[in-house]
Design goal:
By secondary structure, this protein is of the alpha+beta class. About 35% of the residues lie in helices and about 25% in strands. The longest helix has about 40 residues.
């Protein structure tokens, strides 16, 4: 139910994920009255979205929607942020008063976001990743340098002594063996020539026997 005391733009359009502002004008004398924004094609059953405070120009925000009165210009504005396609509907800007409220209908249409905008957003993300990608190789180089240092320390303190020990063992096993004849061993039998010399001299044995008597 339209009223000559208040008038809106009639129809407005917005784009998904964007914002939309609607201005409604009113006649002098309604400055301190409560202003409201209502959704629904049927005036008698529309749902109030947001209202101003009586006697105040202060902005009131509820969810994604805000409303603000301007007494000097005798107008109030409704702003919807982060628009959705399902925000499309018939709305009313109105003035609350004793008896029947005043209002004017506004057709709101929200168009889907263009594909190009999505593509630009995707490219921007790809470019950001491209600029941040070179950070990884520097970290890998540092890790490789650390691994090289650890390997060098293991080579010096572990592998080299191990190799030297193995080389020493091989040399010890392959050393030239000394002849056992170089030094007589204890408990060795006397030379065969001594035994034989005693057997060839019977006179000596006889002298020994007589002497022991």
């Amino acid at each position: 139910m339209g009223s000559s005391a208040i008038s809106g733009p009639g129809a407005v359009r917005g784009v998904e994920q964007g914002s939309l502002t609607v201005w409604c004008q009113y006649d002098p004398g309604y400055e301190p009255y409560v202003k409201w924004w209502c959704r629904g094609a049927d005036w008698s059953s529309c749902c109030f979205v947001v209202k101003t405070i009586h006697g105040s120009e202060k902005e009131v925000k509820k969810g994604r929607v805000s409303i603000k009165d301007n007494w000097e210009n005798r107008s109030f504005t409704m702003t919807v942020e982060k628009l959705r396609v399902d925000d499309s509907d018939t709305y009313w800007c109105g003035i609350e008063r004793v008896g029947a409220d005043l209002g004017d209908d506004v057709d709101v249409t929200i168009d889907p976001a263009p594909t190009e905008a999505v593509s630009i957003s995707t490219r921007a993300t790809s470019n950001a990743n491209m600029f941040t990608a070179p950070v990884a190789p520097e970290e890998n180089q540092w890790q490789l340098s650390l691994l090289g240092s650890v390997h060098f320390l293991l080579l010096v303190f572990l592998k080299v002594p191990l190799l030297l020990g193995m080389l020493g063992a091989v040399l010890w096993v392959n050393r030239p063996l000394r002849s056992s004849r170089g030094k007589p061993q204890e408990n060795q039998q006397p030379p065969c020539s001594s035994t034989l010399s005693r057997e060839k001299d019977p006179q000596t044995e006889e002298k020994g026997i007589f002497l022991r008597r």
